[in-house]
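To assess whether the prediction recovers the assembly geometry, we first specified each molecular entity separately, as shown.
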Amino acid sequence: MNAAKPILSVSDLTIDFSPGSGRLPAVSEVTFTVQPGEMMCIVGESGSGKSVTALAIMGLLPSTARLTGGMDFDGRDLTRLSRRQWQNIRGREIGMIFQEPMTSLNPVFTIGRQLVESIRHHQRISPRAARARAVELLDKVGIPSPRYRLDDYPHQMSGGMRQRVMIAIALTCSPKLLVADEPTTALDVTIQGQLLDLLNQLREDTGTAIMLITHNMGVVAEVADRVTVMYSGQMAEQADVMQIFDRPAHPYTRGLMISTPNLITTLHRLTTIPGTMPNPADPPPGCLFAPRCDMATPACDAGRPANRALSDTHLSACLRAEDLQGALTR
Amino acid sequence: MAGGIHTDIPDDETGRLGRFLAALRPFTRSLSFVVGAVLFGFVVLVTLLGPFLTDVSPSALSMRNRFQPPSWDHWLGTDNLGRDMLARVIYGAQLSLMIGTSVVLLNAVFGVMLGALAGFYSRLDNILMRVADALMAFPAVLLAIGIAAALGPSSMTAIIALSVVYIPRTARVVRSSVLVVKQLDFVLAARAAGATDLRIILKHILPNSMAPMLVQLSFVFAYSVLSEAVLSFLGLGAPPTVPSWGILISEGRAYMREAAWLTVVPGVAIAVTALGLNLLGDGLRDVLDPRMKVAEA
Amino acid sequence: MIAYAVSRLLQAIPILFLVSLFAFGMIYLIPGDAATVMGGPEASAADLERIRENMGLNEPFLQQIVSFYVNLLQGDLGQSLMLGTPVLDAIIDRTPITLGISLYSLAVTIVFGLLTGIVAALNHNKLLDQAATLFALIGISLPNFWLALVMIVVFSVHLGWLPTGGYVPFSESPMGWLRTTTMPALALALLQAGLLTRITRSTMLEVLSQDYIRTARAKGLTEWQVIGQHALANVMMPVVTVLGLILSVLLSGSIVIEAIFGIPGLGALMGNAILSRDFPLVQGGLISIACSLLLLNIVVDVLYFWLDPRVRIKGGD
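The predicted structure of the complete assembly is given in tokenized form:
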């Protein structure tokens, strides 16, 4: 792993919900790190457990969730925080933005109020200074005429604008980590690009690390520094972005990349990964991906493959990672 | 919830009965529905079978047996004229249920019809809703009492008065539902296929507006039972010769000190019936409401 | 907002017209001879003729409607047969009494209903919630006049804490007023509080599952701020709409409750008028009450309009 100390370190994180979602936990022994100031993307389909992981890091899981494993943020153990301590960290040291900008802002409060509330909650600052700071933040996220937007209500803004406001709110106290759960999925494609650029720019300006959750490999290609691929609640692969794209070490990752439509090379039918995600009530005995994998061997069904380090920065949960990489090498 | 779609229908019961039973299953999951059904079912049962179980007449006087508190001989005691309270309460139930059922039926026919027409034809909507609003501007019980006073006390009066009061409300509920359903794509498709308005309303829109309608009808039944009690308490409902629950309470009022059960018992009967119906309504709403909240995962 | 209020008032005019029409038309519902019904079994032929003259029953139909409306617009609601005084005066006399009890009852309803609903929602599916839900259900299932009688038996007859009835004006003795109005207010409040609890609870549950509540928590706000500000602000609106219904139920209930407790208020007036077939009074009362409720509902609507920015300000999306 990198020599620098990670801002977030998750190890063997396992989360399940007590009125049981079958015997398959939502998240199972997931391990990854986020370095300070980097853009780490977590990729996976619906049901891969990526959102649950994000909520866990914010301490926003419902009370029916049970969590084991380690979550370490900036030297603090997140698994042992009191409610008070969580309230201190949320919004100040870890920020979060969500997928649905249309419903994530309170419809009966002005956005100015929602911003100022965040600012004044974590800092002792006068209302006027807070308003000035709010204007500053809106400007930073690229909202035109910020001073006049403070008194607008959310329904008066478009989805893209609302998402920018969410980002502004998340960044009020210059957090060390920003968790972004599919922030662009609900927006138009044209706006997506703008928003990603904005996030990247902010990251560079403020040094905030970003944990970006997405199901879109295109997004990953555009902004990621490092990537963690999740499948059905488990980690499939983790690597630098170039490594993931040049030499993927897990058949699922390869499948994801092949099935992403490409304007230039896709002239035939869309390629898909055959099969569906495992039924939580009846999971496969070994590697969860094995039933859908064209490289599966009997060894793959024997037991869950451990995370293996292929290099300093590259982890894979596939028994045949080297074979795959060898086959893909041009 | 994870997993695929399960079908619970056993192989040997795929007939109509089997499908009917399978359709009932989700209702059993709602505690409200089950308890409500049990309570109301109990009331209905007692009402229907009661006269066969007790051979005491509700109007049999017995001056020797006046003011008996509840005992083995008279489960609910006797009143100021020695009449058996249990018998009187049972006959009172018959009246309440009869009136309630009539009001609900009238609501089901006219309320639904008017609501569907208002929802479907926007020109009619305006007029119909104005009339409905005007009727609803009068407090429910007040209007019922007023109408009953004009028409003179009788069961029929109670039925008419309560229907006039509640039909606008039912119509509103149906109208809202129709307004939503008529925008849905399958209605457009039916229209494009050349279906007549009547056919669209009957075959497509109404079946899909069932849920709020059924819920509303349960509550209307409950309100009817309660309002009828008020009417007869004031002497505006069924004539005093028929022992309706409201009249029982009114008669018992004079003897509250000595014979409190005369007042308490009919009230409890009303409360149990209304409670059962309200629970049924809640249960129906729980089961039929498609806006299910998704659990966070 | 003024524009909205004005438009609602204008919309109410046709309804007011219909309302008065219904009230007017009531007389024609009476099977048989209206004058006989009104005069009662002991009226002499002269009495009946007087009634007919007063009510204008001898005149052609069209003329009756016209005079009715002419009088109405001048504020003349006719003479009460029972009291012999103008209807309007009788109503104005009694209104403050009913108003006082209604406000008392409303206060109890709102405080109790809101609190219970919120607490229930916050403790969803746990004991407090089930207790509150049960309580609300019982509240809407009990006949309130029966409850009043039971309360009298318990608190007046057996415990002797409160008088069995009567009314003491507040100006005469605040304590006396309190003693004579508490049971009526509570008997009325039960049904209303039940309704309010149910709607508050379901609205609160819905609001709590919304995304913006999750955002508020993600900002690190305390639970007090999340519930007390973000959630509550969104709950108030649907709750305000129920107020109209509650007011209506309140007036309905007053008729019987005032009769039971012997309170000389508007409800008792209406009750007596109806029972003695004093149709001018019934008509006048119905019109006054319905109009007041319509106006109150408009106030409620305007309040809602003011509270909900989505309705107030058109969005540009």
